Amino acid sequence: MDTNIFDAIVIGAGPAGLTAGMYLARAKARTLILNDGTAGGQMVLTHEIANYPGVESISGYQLATIMRNQAKHFGCTIRTNVKITELDLDGEMKSVEVNGKDRYGARTIILAPGGRSRTLGVPGEDRLKGKGISYCATCDGDFFQDKDIIVVGGGNSALEEAVSLTKYARSVTIVHQFDHFQAFPHAIEEAQANPKIRFVMESRIAEFIGDEALERVRIEHIPTQQLTETPIDGVFVFIGYMPNTESLRGKVALTDSGEIVVSSLLETNVPGVFAAGDATTKRFRQITTAVADGTVSALAAMEYLRTAAAPDARTVIAAQEEMVV
Q1: How far apart are CA 137 and CA 153, in angstroms?
Q2: CB 306 within 8 A of CB 300
Q3: pLDDT higher than threshold 60 for residue 304
């Protein structure tokens, strides 16, 4: 058997990609998972996960480690910290080139590239990233012990991470552009009940100021356009993410915002190519929804291998007839 030919290749090792890999490999499909960073995706940036069914509390890093170990246990080949330099989705046999030299083939591909933190795009942000501006509470929270910080955003991530950051910071100010939050009620209530947190609503960060490190921010009150300058030790930005799909333009159908267009079975418009996780068109993005996507995409890919691929490609026929969790 050609060691570079697989039944399925999964691109992305977040919760969607790792789950897809588990289901495929457990069904005896020869499976390769490729990822451009460490396994876990955005999940590893979450300090505490308390709403994953069956697990009372766990860090994102711990959950990612467990998922990766499960995928390897079932037989997945996993390559992380690699760069995909070429992707050919045309024809019956798809191919992926890694690091400009290694080429792999498979009859089905699952795209699970995930996303990345969205930036504010205001003056001073690029220059002061990592110098007082952060997008990861888990990574950088302890650098701000007994400091005054700002959290930007009004969704679940912003409020939950603001509460988490109060373990380190002396004070946390949440700056949000609207007069209401987009988070779940329990997240709003927890943030409002925390004595270390205050709120600046209908406002936005207009500029980050500092020489070698962040020193101050300029905040604009949107209704009045009034600007105030505030000394601050750090700013954490949680305003969503962008799908990592730039390299997929022209290869599969994408929305104007870059999300992968999929069917109810997570099929793309290219036969044999499926997609899962936060980079797809969906309303809700949670670890649990990514895991569900990984499951559905793997089962659909297995069905494709059984019914659509050429007979000599059907290396998995019987083992996948019953797949149980």
Answers
A1: 13
A2: no
A3: yes
